[in-house]
Amino acid sequence: MQHLEQEKFHAIPVFNSAYPHEFSRWIAQMDQLFTGSGYDISHARSILGIKLSGSARTNVLHNIHHVQSWAEICKTLVRELSDTPNVVDLITAFRQLRQNGGPIQDYNAQFREYLFRTKAITDTDDINLLQRYCDGLDNEYEPFRTKQVARMRDHTVHLSELMDHARKFTLNSKILSPPMSSELQVAAAQTTSPRK
């Protein structure tokens, strides 16, 4: 494990399934550790054995025994450990998420949060996910939205890249937005890692 991954590893707390309200932040940190880092899937299972505790640990490790990708492991973790009270309401809220004049950073952080919480219960392919993100942007982003449509259809843009482009579009177009809320500053810092 490289030095950067070691730092990320030690920063992640052990998740106890008795406290499901802490799951969203924990899974975001795990996703940062594994996504695009060239990890070995058996290594991921070993780390989960260290970073999980509580009654669900045995079930989770058993259910991911034959899984071959981090994305599939993530779905299993959400199914087993998330405290989602009402799946239908969560999916509906994700689909209806809009920027509503707020800072682009807030919208990005909220979008990522919904994405993490619905990984196991919605099979949204990349282009639909990117379209959903663009649809939630304010009207001032119409030039940006139009420009990205062709790239989405050609599958040449990913979500994290799209979010970064939207942020830069905000700066270059001098779109005025209120400062990012303090509640989402931590979430943004923990969920905005480059994706490959």
Describe the protein.
The chain has 196 residues and is mostly helical. The protein has two domains: 3-81, no CATH class; 87-191, no CATH class. It is 62% helix and 2% strand. The protein has eleven helices and two strands; from the N terminus they run αβααβαααααααα. The chain has helices at 3-11, 23-34, 41-51, 57-63, 70-81, 87-95, 104-118, 126-135, 142-153, 159-172, 182-191, and strands at residues 15-16, 52-53. A two-stranded parallel sheet has the order 1-2. The radius of gyration is 17 Å and the shape is elongated. It starts with a helix and ends in a 5-residue tail after the last helix. The model is unreliable at 191-196 (pLDDT under 50).
